[in-house]
């Protein structure tokens, strides 16, 4: 270790681990995650919950594995080969692959996490650690979405010259599920890179989604939603991000696409049956768990070999977007912070999410 406070670190920690299908139990004697030379150890001060937390727990339970992805905290130990210049005490946020069958000691619902230094997002002074914990999964997902939709940045996020694209070309991107935690971040990212996002949401979340930067919102529960979008975009929509990714949302998204076709990207595996209805639409779905450049040992279509390119893409994406967080060009999804319950309160939060009761906000827990 290059730099550490190892002497002051406890030998064990409190952590929420899978105790069976759909069940989390609090362990008081869980081991601290082992630290690789390219990783830092972070003392977790806040975590947020994601749908993947309960999906892993319910559908691919790894008994004894620490759960949780999104976290924020301070660096307490630094491996000997870390490339990002972080110091002890630096405030960072990121996400880990909790419930990972290959790394059962490392999940966010714990007092300590280990994470590659390049995947740490610096938390600017204007953001509290609680608020910062709500953002990493969505921020990292954004890099995959831009790549999948083949949306070149029209503004120089990284200081490089952007590609020249005719100003006459429509730049609509539909974000279906604009009020999701991923949706409000993606809308802001799309706007920052030069596109005109439009979105679907419930009427009660219209103000939130418009404030995030959507040019127009549509009620996805309306039977005329797809037609309204098609009319608004004058049959020219060619990019759709589906943050819900169910067969019914995919069918609706396909109806919105202009007659010249385009690209559809979902955050869940798409329906082959609906894909086959239009050969002019390139369908794709993303899986951000490849961000670590390590194997994803999930079943079936979720299984992945290590993809180093994804780690490289996200490392440079994080460096590009850090200034956008610092100057509030990318703002957090609304947060509901539980400051009293700590790790004990997380299972109830996950249950609300499981039942579809979270709308337009991210549940955050101070640890
Ligand atoms: N593949 C990946 O790498 C990846 C990465 C990130 C997320 N995801 C997945 O993406 C999905 C969204 O995650 P999240 O955390 O962003 O969600 P979230 O914040 O928990 O989503 C809640 C929102 O979903 C909206 N919603 C529900 N049904 C809808 C529908 N039919 N049409 C439009 N909006 C609908 C609701 O909007 P209203 O309240 O306005 O009704 C609600 O506010 C999850 O399935 C998650 O697992 C996957």
From TrEMBL:
Protein name: Enoyl reductase (ER) domain-containing protein
InterPro entries: ADH-like_C (IPR013149), ADH-like_N (IPR013154), ER (IPR020843), GroES-like_sf (IPR011032), NAD(P)-bd_dom_sf (IPR036291), Trans-enoyl_RdTase-like (IPR047122)
Family membership: Belongs to the zinc-containing alcohol dehydrogenase family.
Superkingdom of the organism of origin: Eukaryota
Family matches, as CDD domains: enoyl_reductase_like
Keywords, in A-Z order: NADP, Oxidoreductase
Domain Enoyl reductase (ER) residue range list: 19-364
Subunit structure: Monomer.
Signal peptide range: none
Source species of the chain: Aureobasidium pullulans (Black yeast)
């Amino acid at each position: 270790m290059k730099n550490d406070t190892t002497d002051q670190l406890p030998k064990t920690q409190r952590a929420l681990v899978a105790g069976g299908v759909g069940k989390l139990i609090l362990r008081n004697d869980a081991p601290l995650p082992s630290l690789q030379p390219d990783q830092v150890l972070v003392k977790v001060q806040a975590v947020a919950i994601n749908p993947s937390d309960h999906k892993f727990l319910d559908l691919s339970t790894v008994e004894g594995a620490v759960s949780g992805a999104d976290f924020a905290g301070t660096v307490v130990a630094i491996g000997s080969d870390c490339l990002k210049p972080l110091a002890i005490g630096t405030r960072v946020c990121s996400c880990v692959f909790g419930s990972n069958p290959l790394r059962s000691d490392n999940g966010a619902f714990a007092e300590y996490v280990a994470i590659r230094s390049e995947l740490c997002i610096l938390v600017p002074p204007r953001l509290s650690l609680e608020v910062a914990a709500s953002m990493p999964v969505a921020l990292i997902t954004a890099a995959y979405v831009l790549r999948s939709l083949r949306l070149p940045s029209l503004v120089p996020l990284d200081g490089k010259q952007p590609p020249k694209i005719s100003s006459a070309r429509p730049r609509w991107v539909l974000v279906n599920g604009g009020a999701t935690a991923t949706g409000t971040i993606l809308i802001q990212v799309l706007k920052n890179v030069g596109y005109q996002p439009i979105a679907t949401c419930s009427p009660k979340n219209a103000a939130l989604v418009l404030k995030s930067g959507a040019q127009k919102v549509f009620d996805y529960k309306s039977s005329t939603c797809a037609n309204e979008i098609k009319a608004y975009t004058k049959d020219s929509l060619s990019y759709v991000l589906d943050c819900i990714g169910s067969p019914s949302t995919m069918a609706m998204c396909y109806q919105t696409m202009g007659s010249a076709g385009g690209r559809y990207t979902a955050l869940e595996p798409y329906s082959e049956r609906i894909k086959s209805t239009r050969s002019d639409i390139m369908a794709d779905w993303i899986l951000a768990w490849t961000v670590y450049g390590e194997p994803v040992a999930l079943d079936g279509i979720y299984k992945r070999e290590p993809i180093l390119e994804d780690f490289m893409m996200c490392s440079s994406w994080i460096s590009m977007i850090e200034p956008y967080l610092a100057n509030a060009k990318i703002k957090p999804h609304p947060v509901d912070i539980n400051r009293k319950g700590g790790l004990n309160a997380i299972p109830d939060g996950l249950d609300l999410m499981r039942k579809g009761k979270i709308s337009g906000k991210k549940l955050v827990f101070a640890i």
